[in-house]
Amino acid sequence: MLSRIYPGAEGLAFFQGLSLVLFFLVFIGVIIMIFTMRKGYLNKMSNMPLELEDDQNTNHGGH
Fold first, then answer.
1. Quick check: helix, strand or coil at residue 60?
2. Residue 23: what are its φ and ψ, rounded to 5°?
3. In the chain, what are the domain boundaries?
4. Angle at CA 22, nearest 5°, toward 21 and 28?
5. pLDDT tens sequence across 25-42
6. Cα distances (angstroms) measured from residue 19 to each of 14, 33, 42, 44
7. Half-sphere exposure at residue 59, Cβ-oriented, CA atoms within 13 angstroms
8. Which stretches in the chain have pLDDT values below 70?
């Protein structure tokens, strides 16, 4: 299909397949990473913006 849009794309079929495979590998890797995260790490990261805001308020003396 790409060769109809761009006639010089005859040799690019390999790269199209490679990019599709790489996309799915990264996607599956992210899914695996999400499901294997520790609950404590997720809780720490979810509370981090709140902790930073509290730290800023106390470090500047109420300014």
1. coil
2. -60, -45
3. 2-59
4. 90
5. 999 999 999 999 898 988
6. 9, 21, 31, 35
7. 6
8. 1-3, 8-9, 51-63
